[in-house]
């Protein structure tokens, strides 16, 4: 990290849900699901049902759960 | 008019009894003038005492969590806990800088020795662990050590201020406490993320470069650091980052130094997470000039030195985030900056270099949870 400047404390800390985004390397169809132990970014999972190419984890991130 | 009445100025008095007026107005005033600072000291001490207590709770919780994480499935728990407690007290003595010439080499040597010692002790303690779990343990212990250090420093100044009844010392501590608590909060969140090997905000650099490295052969170039060669718009791109998915920042300084000397590139692009200023948006991407790399300065020095000697332009691309976001679970805004940064890299390469040129692209940061 560069620019070591500290921001003000955030008192409204949010609880994040961890999501994993799976994506076929060819048809780029993204599937969003909850994170499972062992998930790693760029890990190859199954084969795509549509084009038989690899499905890869493209992103893992935390997001605030949507209010219903 | 009301104010004049309240403070009893002029001819207006609270009551017609002058003695009662004296007791209500002038006595508290005299007490505040004489003992105001003592009262403030007492209030600050009380406030700090609560904060120190909270910090202690957080520190103890981090120790317990570390114990639970490292003793999972281990028989000799007592010996491991004893060793952990000695890890928590580890310290690093910085080299003397009265004569600054050569201090970077000394600093590099000390920090490398420290990392090596930590790694070898963990290996000795848990010989059967795979690299990912060993690195996770190392990171979790480092977090618990930082917690212990923050707590001890705060407690030291609190106790000195209290013992000497030093109002100024206590007031200064009270002023910086919100920022120290911010750091403690960040460490608290980092603990959970590192235990599960999830990517942190600082992993954005390795994630961006790691994506470009996929399906290309990786070579080791420095401790925990890899590079791969690729073709971007007809240029030879040499991609460098720390070796994931374990939580490490590698040694980008050594790697870039070696590659600059070996390959004689025409451009160096560095991608890193940068701490945002208050008011800036998380995940915002900015471009600049210079070595985008944090830490204590060893890697930055090596890269700047090698780039200056080769007259090599250094371009920086940063993804903005707060301190808490940088060391805890990567947020959606940060993760979604990957494509934006790839577009910027392509634009810089096309505008600033010619076909067949060599370019070094470095993804700086902790590569936890990211495979290349």
- Order the strands across the largest sheet of chain A as they lie in space: 2-1-4-3
Per CATH, the superfamily of the largest domain in chain B is: Peptidyl-tRNA hydrolase
CATH class wording of the largest domain in chain B: Alpha Beta
How many individual β-strands of chain B? 7
Number of helices of chain A: 0
Helices of chain B, by number, come to 12
Helix content of chain A: under 10%
User: How far apart lie the N and C ends of chain B?
Assistant: 74 Å
Q: What's the rounded overall pLDDT mean of chain B? A: 91
Percent helix range of chain B: 55-70%
CATH fold-level assignment of the largest domain in chain B: Rossmann fold
Integer tally of domains of chain B: 3
Please outline the major beta sheet of chain B: 7 strands, mixed
- What distance lies between the first and last C-alpha atoms of chain A, to the nearest angstrom? 37 Å
Widest beta sheet: strand line-up of chain B: 1-2-3-7-4-6-5
Structural class label of chain B: alpha/beta
Helix and strand element order of chain A: EEEE
User: How would you describe the shape of chain A?
Assistant: elongated
Instruction: Enumerate the spans of chain B where pLDDT stays under 50 for 5 or more consecutive residues.
Output: 1-6
Question: How would you sum up this structure, described in words?
Answer:
Mean pLDDT of chain A is 82; it is low at 1-6. Chain A has a four-stranded antiparallel beta sheet with strand order 2-1-4-3, with no helix packed on it. By secondary structure, chain A is mostly beta strands. The N and C termini of chain A lie far apart (37 Å). Chain A has no helices and four strands. In chain A, 0% of the residues lie in helices and 40% in strands. With 372 residues, chain B is an alpha/beta fold. Chain B folds into three domains: 2-42, no CATH class; 55-195, no CATH class; 201-363, Rossmann fold (3-Layer(aba) Sandwich), CATH 3.40.50. In chain B, 58% of the residues lie in helices and 13% in strands. Residues 1-6 of chain B have low confidence and may be disordered. Classes of the chains: A mainly beta (68), B alpha/beta (372). Chain A binds chain B through residues 1-10, 13, 16, 18-19, 35, 37, 40-43, 56, 59-63, and chain B through 178-179, 181-183, 185, 196-199, 202-203, 207, 210-211, 214, 244-245, 272-278, 292-294, 316, 318, 322-324, 326, 329-332, 334-336, 338, 365, 369-372.
